[in-house]
Amino acid sequence: MTAKNIVLFITDQWRWDTLNKLGHPCKLPNLQAFREESTNHVNTFTSVPLCTPARASLFTGKWPHQTGTMDNVQGSSFYPHGKLHPSHKIYIERLQEAGYEVSFIGKWHLGAGTLKERGIKAYLSDGGDESLFPDDELEFATLRKTPFYGTITKGTHLDEKRVLKGIEELETLSKGDKPFCLIVSLPGPHFPHHVPADWVAMYDDLPEDYVPENFLPQFTEEGKPLAQGASYWPCQDTRGLDQQDWRRTAQHYFGFCSFIDDLFGQFRRRMSALGLDDSTSLTFTADHGEMLGAHGWFDKGPFFYEEVMRIPMLMRDAGQTSAAVNEGFVSFRDLFPTVLVKSDAALILTADEAARGYDTTDCDHVFYGYDVYQGRQFKFRGIRETRYKYAWSPHDLEELYDLETDSQERINRADDPALKEEKSRLLTLLFDWMKTENDVLAYGGYQLPVGSYIDGRPAHEQHDHQQHLNPALKQ
To answer: How far apart are CA 222 and CA 398, in angstroms?
Structure first.
């Protein structure tokens, strides 16, 4: 059935395994129910495990090196200042020009106020007039600066306000005479993991020794790139965390996911009550994942581990009533072509874009890249197949993992003679793709040392982020 309306429910830093790993401790009853009426694209990967460039690729359909949006912009962590250039038209602008009513609620992270500048209605959003984290009204029983978790005892979480505004906007749009595109974009469960106490308490039964299977003390793995040998933002240095810190961090992260799951359930039920199920597609996804202790890391960074690369992607077509699974390898950047090709707005797509939709491709691999983090240079390009994952860098070590024998990605086999032919094959595929996408890295040239700033400062210097931090994080 062709969708008249399009709804995207986007989260930030949501791990794939919470929804897809059998026996996972995260409790997500509403999303599990939604999975039973949608298509689960189980091999979806982000284009880059960093908020701004991933979102730029989503809204433009281009790779970060093609938009120049390669680092975080306008957030509390960005250095230097930047934004998605207005010359790059986004899909929702094109939809609006085609006669759609468009509303955006929540996290934009592509330049403060730039949705408003593009003529898009934005609510409770840094794309309009608001900050991402105006949560000063909240009261906490526990508030820890690193790794930024807090148990909320009083006040309404801003993500709840955003979803309630999304429901209100859904009601308004459903009464109009235009087709609509509504985007509800939440900063959660990205840290700070500020979570209402009841949702944190749901995970009081986590084992006292809870850590991921591939946890080990930070910076102790051998054979890894230089980029993984240091922390580049204060929250990334986990060497001071003890067992209870890791357990409490997981407890708040899972609690945050369950809290958002409940909000999604409210939104989904209201959508049905408004009679929109047969005319509206609904997608739940995330821009990238979260390490949560894997390899000793918190948050994300300049690496391609499954914990940050693989993302949930549940897509319910208009009129869909039963579950389906698609195992094709697909990219976050092709989400809009996927939903648009099955909507009344399909004509706004170019032929190339339409061919990239998840249901029109049968790829057995996916590509991704990394360029900059917190103003520092990290050049990586990667390819992921069912069995092998390969990452190449012009100024750092290569990585090659056999996911069949090493699902935890502990052993870098880039120099293993037994995989020489596989590495050569993957490198050829990767460079063919880079050349097709006009990636300058495919043609050689000097690169600044790993981790050095784009303004020339050496890697050992540390930018002072404290002046930009949300007041709640300074406590």
So the answer is: 13
Sign, CA dihedral 184-357-2-313, equals negative
Q: Is residue 328 part of a domain?
A: yes
- Is pLDDT at 265 greater than 80 in this prediction? yes
Q: Residue 262 corresponds to which tokens in the numbers above?
A: 């409940």
Range of the domain at 20: 5-365
Residue 346 resides in a domain? yes
Extract the tokens encoding 79: 């250095």
Tell me the torsion sign for CA atoms 282, 32, 16, 108: positive
Asked whether the beta carbons of 52 and 71 are under 8 A apart, the reply is: yes
Burial classification of residue 127, based on how many CB atoms lie within 10 Å of its CB (0-12 exposed, 13-18 middle, 19 or more buried): buried
**What gap in Å lies between CA 121 and CA 116, rounded to an integer?**
6
Torsion sign, CA atoms 370, 371, 377, 382: positive
Q: pLDDT of 461-473, one tens digit each?
A: 876 554 444 443 3
13 inside domain:
yes
Structurally, how many domains does the chain consist of? 1
Calpha distance 149→142 (Å, rounded)? 8
Residue 240 exposed, middle or buried by CB count within 10 Å (0-12, 13-18, 19+) = exposed
Query: How crowded is residue 232: how many other Cβ atoms within 10 Å of its Cβ?
Result: 19
Per-residue pLDDT of 427-457, as tens digits, reads 999 999 999 999 999 999 999 999 998 878 8
- DSSP annotation of 140 reads E
Residues 6+ apart with CB under 8 A from 104: 92, 115, 120, 121, 122, 123, 125, 127, 183, 185
> How many Cβ atoms sit within 10 Å of the Cβ of residue 460?
8
Q: What is the DSSP string of 293-307?
A: TGGG--S--SS--HH
The alpha carbon of 302 is separated from its chain's Cα centroid by a whole number of angstroms, namely 14
User: Is the separation of the CB atoms in 371 and 447 below 8 Å?
Assistant: no
432: amino acid identity, one letter: D
Query: CA 110, CA 82: separation in Å to the nearest integer?
Result: 8
The CATH number linked to 348 is: 3.40.720.10
Q: Is 38 within a domain?
A: yes
Which residue from 396, 365, 401, 366 is spatially nearest to 380, judged by alpha carbons? Answer: 396
Q: How far apart are CA 200 and CA 372, in angstroms?
A: 34
- The answer to whether the beta carbons of residues 358 and 328 sit under 8 Å apart is yes
Listed in sequence order, the DSSP H helices in 175-239 are 197-201
